[in-house]
Amino acid sequence: MHFKFGCVLAGLCLALPAMAKDVPAWRGYAGNAQHTAPAPTTGQPLTNFHWTMAVDLQPPQGDALKRQTELLIHYASPMITAKNTVLVPVKTTQNGAFEIEAVSGTNGHKLWSMKTDYTLPPHDWVPPLPAHLTAQNKLYVAGNGGTTYERDNPDDKRGKPVQNAFYGLSNYQANKLEYNENVVIDTPITADSKGNIYFGFLVQGSTPLKLKSGVARIDKDGNGTWISAGDAANDQTMTQAVMNCAPAISKDGSTIYIGISNDEETGYLVGLDATTLAPKYRVALKDPLNAENAGLSEDGTASPTIGPDNEVYYGVLDAGEHNCRGWLLNFSSDLTKEKTPGSFGWDDTVSIVPSSAVPGGDPGKSPYYLMTKYNNYLGCGSGNGHNMIAILDPKATQKDNYSNATVMKEVETILDPHQVPGETTGAVYEWCINSAVVDASRNSVIANAEDGYTYRWDLATNTLAEMKKLNAPLGEAYTPTIIGPDGTVYAINDAMLYAMGN
């Protein structure tokens, strides 16, 4: 399952890869291949809007009565080059046509745009456009039929896209109709330090090569490799990579981690050889409270995070006894040892926080902490709507406040400050992040909430030290927060991208 491919649209050749000084400030989902979400520089104060732009020209309507209060869609993370070009995935039609708009991070002025023929997989909540910026400053965007488009040096307006196919471009070109109808990329794209890219794909019908849903790799030299979900998990009841689960890559580049599921939304976390995609590790994902199968919902975006000590963190849904909070599962790098879970995992990818950024912690014992969403959903189990974000110590334990389980110690937590109108339980708005940027130089984290605000959580004082109102409260699927190379803070809310700072 190895293929050589490559095609330049309009017969043009790409330039040489960018030099090391041009390594992007923000490469894609959760910032880097380990999904640790570190800010590239000190973030500016949340004082003013620098500029705004739409990331969805036709947001899904659904029930006309609910559109004003719910927007159940995931928006892709923008990417930002070292030269401060912001690459924004934009949904242009109701049914999901997409393009990349490149704008200046300084003023939001449009620099260029590139359409893609990508079509969405079957879904409930609308998934994001898969796109990623490599360390070599090369942009990859999903296309139709499981193909990708690569565009070198996105700071240059004159770049031309190259179409690739992990199963061979000649195979795609010979049978476009079959592949366009039956193959679709259904996870974000992640790249390693050498520029090789990885993603999950879904096969919905027969293809000439008899492809099966699974995980694909395209290397920097144009070679494609894939493995089926069943082979990746060594369990032929597994049918696909978990939708919206961005592959994570070990720090040494040798292993990729991704969730694999079946039609019942249960399954495994697997580790695959980053060169061949041969299976290396796997672990069945279980609810730590009752040992039942954990949920792997396709309405979420939970993806693995790799800690500085190579431990792997992955959020799953609970089996029905944890207020829909899910669990943050914690494994050794070879997935053979399961460690203390965190008390939240639904639709969240944890960020890494240096313990030195949290004065109340114990840096001698725990060199890093985890930042996570910590909602306690009103109306699910005994959930009371006291929705928080949290700093967790993965090396220390406490009794769970929501069950009889032993969980990671809460170092700091903080409630959303705005109460939901009409609720008598003290319910506050949910935090709506799926990955939050860590501004370690200011001992803080930037996070969004469904109350329509972006907040700077000061970890030294455990206060919401800064806040900026974006829009009216809105129930929606979760989105990332980002800091650019000039310190501009970015957040998505109500189908808009906001650039904020001094």
What's the helix and strand layout?
Blueprint: E1 2-4, E2 48-54, E3 70-71, E4 79-80, E5 85-91, E6 98-104, E7 110-116, E8 131-133, E9 138-142, E10 147-152, E11 162-165, H1 169-174, H2 176-182, E12 183-185, E13 190-191, E14 197-203, E15 214-218, E16 223-228, H3 229-233, E17 240-241, E18 248-249, E19 255-261, E20 267-273, E21 279-284, E22 305-306, E23 312-316, E24 327-331, E25 351-354, E26 368-374, E27 388-399, E28 406-415, E29 433-435, E30 438-439, E31 444-448, E32 453-458, E33 463-469, E34 475-476, E35 479-483, E36 489-493, E37 496-501
Parallel strand pairs: 3-34, 29-35
Antiparallel strand pairs: 1-16, 2-37, 4-5, 5-6, 6-7, 8-9, 9-10, 10-11, 12-14, 13-14, 14-15, 15-16, 17-19, 18-19, 19-20, 20-21, 22-23, 23-24, 25-26, 26-27, 27-28, 30-31, 31-32, 32-33, 35-36, 36-37
Q: Characteristics of this structure?
A:
502 residues; six-stranded antiparallel beta sheet
Task: Give your account of this protein's structure.
The protein is mainly beta. The chain contains three helices and 37 strands. Strand 4 and strand 5 form a beta hairpin.
Q: How far from one another are the termini?
A: 51 Å
Q: Mind describing the biggest β-sheet?
A: 6 strands, antiparallel
Helix amount: under 10%
Count of discrete alpha- or pi-helical segments spanning 4 or more residues = 3
Strand content: 35-45%
Oligomer: single chain
Shape: globular
Rg (CA only): 21 Å
Q: Which stretches of 5+ consecutive residues score pLDDT under 50?
A: 1-20
Total strands: 37
- Report the average pLDDT across residues: 93
Structural class: mainly beta
